[in-house]
Amino acid sequence: MTNPELSPHPADPDEADREAAAPSRRSPVAWILATLVVLGLIGWLGARVKVALEARQALAAERNEATKPGAHPSESGPAKIVTGVAQKWQPEVALEGTLEPEREADLGFRVPGRLAAIRVKLGERVRSGQVLATLDEAEARAQVQAASAQVRAAEAQLALASDAAHRTGKLVGSGAASQASGVQVSEQARLAAAQLDAARAQLTLAETALANHVLTAPFSGAVTRVPPGTGAIVSPGVPLFHLQDTSTLKLAATASEVDAALLHPGVTVALSGAAPQKTGTLVAVLSSVDPSTRRVVVQAEVKNDGPAPLRGGVFVRAEVVGLAPVQVVRVPAEALRPGSQDELMVVKDGRLHARHVLFSRAADGALLVRSGLEATDAILLSPSAEAADGDPAPSAGAAR
C-alpha cells in the first residue's frame, strides 16, 4: 500500500484544478496582443501608402504645370523676352581632314616575267620617265627578232608577187595571156601585201611587249614601296611599286550646310600648327550634301614647297580666312528651343511663332543668326521643348 506522505506529487484536487485553468486564462491575453500588433502594422502601412500617393499627386501636378504652353521646367516666375542685336560678323570656318598627295599610283608590269633588276630605292625621288625596274628580256627580244624576220619574208613575197603581176599584165595587154591569168596574179600580189601588213603588226606587238619589260615612272615623285628583291616571277597588273607626288597636297574636309554657304572656290585656307605657316586655296565646294554625314565635302590645295615640306597622309586642322563680313543678329544661346536644331520662338500679338533660322556659333556660344530673324523681333528665352507655333505667349518679365 502506498504511503501518501512519501508520494512526490501530492494529490491536491484544488491545485490540480488551478493548473488546468491557467492555460485557459493566458489564451485571451495573447490573442489580444497579437490583434493589437496586426492593427498597428496595418495602420503604419496605410500611412506610408497615403504619403506615397500624396507625393505622386504633387509630382503629377508639377509635370502638368511644366508642360503648359510657354512654360519652362527650370524656371519660375515670368518668362524672359529679348530682342537681338544687329552687328557685323567676320565669318570663321574651321576645317579638318587629311592631306593627300596630288597624285599617287600603284605601279606594276603589264606583262609577266622574271624580275631582273630594281633601279630605285625606297624613299628615292624620281623624275617622270625614269626607269624603276626591268624584267628578263631574252624571250621578248627573240620574239621581236622572229617577227622582224616574218616582215622581211612578207616583203620578199610581196616583191615577187608584184613583179609577176607586172609581167602578166603586159602579156594580157598583148593578148599572149588570158584575162584570168592577169586577175590571178593581181590577187596574189594583194594577198602578199596583206601578209606583209600582218607581219608588221606582229612586229609592233612584239616590240611593245619588249618595251613593257621596262617599268618607268609616269610622273615625278617619291617611291614609297619597292619589291624586296629580284628573281621573282611577277604577274601582269600586280602592284610592285608605289609612287606619290607630294609637291601639291589636297585637303579633303567637310563643312556644315550653314558654313558651306559662306565658302566659295578661291578663298584662302590657313593650316593650323604648321611651321612655317602653310596656306592653300579652296578649289571645290560640292553642291550636294553627303547623305551619311549631312555635311558638304570641300577640297583645298596646298603647295608643299619651302624648307619644311609637309608629309602626305597627315591629319590637319585649318581655318578659312578672308571671308567677307556678313550682317547677323546676335541672340543668347538660350533662345534655341530644346530638341530643335534651328528653331526660335518669336512673340507676336500675344502668340508664339516658330522661326527656323540659319546661324553660326560665337566663341561664347551665342547664336549669330544670318537669316530668318530681324533685330526687332521679340524672342522668348528658354522656351519649353513642347512649345508650338500658335501657343499663347507666357507673361513676360523685363526685356533685355
Helix content: 25-40%
Low-confidence stretches: 1-13, 16-26, 66-76
Along the chain, the helix and strand elements come as HEEEEEEHHEEEEHEEEEEEEEEE
* Principal-axes shape call: elongated
Number of helices, where a helix is a run of at least 4 consecutive DSSP H or I residues: 4
Extended strand count = 20
What is the structural class? alpha+beta
> What is the CA-based Rg, rounded?
49 Å
Quaternary structure of the protein: single chain
Lateral strand order in the biggest sheet: 3-10-13-12-11-14
Please give the largest β-sheet.
Answer: 6 strands, antiparallel, barrel
- N- to C-terminal separation? 119 Å
Round the mean pLDDT to the nearest integer and report it. 83
Summarize the structure in words.
- The protein has 400 residues and is an alpha+beta fold.
- The chain has helices spanning 13-66, 138-174, 179-211, 257-260; strands at 81-83, 85-89, 93-107, 113-118, 125-126, 131-135, 214-216, 221-225, 233-234, 241-255, 268-271, 279-289, 296-303, 315-321, 326-331, 343-348, 351-356, 358-361, 367-371, 378-380.
- A six-stranded antiparallel beta barrel has the order 3-10-13-12-11-14. It has a four-stranded antiparallel β-sheet with strand order 1-20-16-17, with no helix packed on it.
- Helix 2 (138-174) packs antiparallel against helix 3.
- The longest helix is centred in the first third of the chain and has 54 residues, at 13-66.
- Mean pLDDT is 83; it is low at 1-13, 16-26 and 66-76.
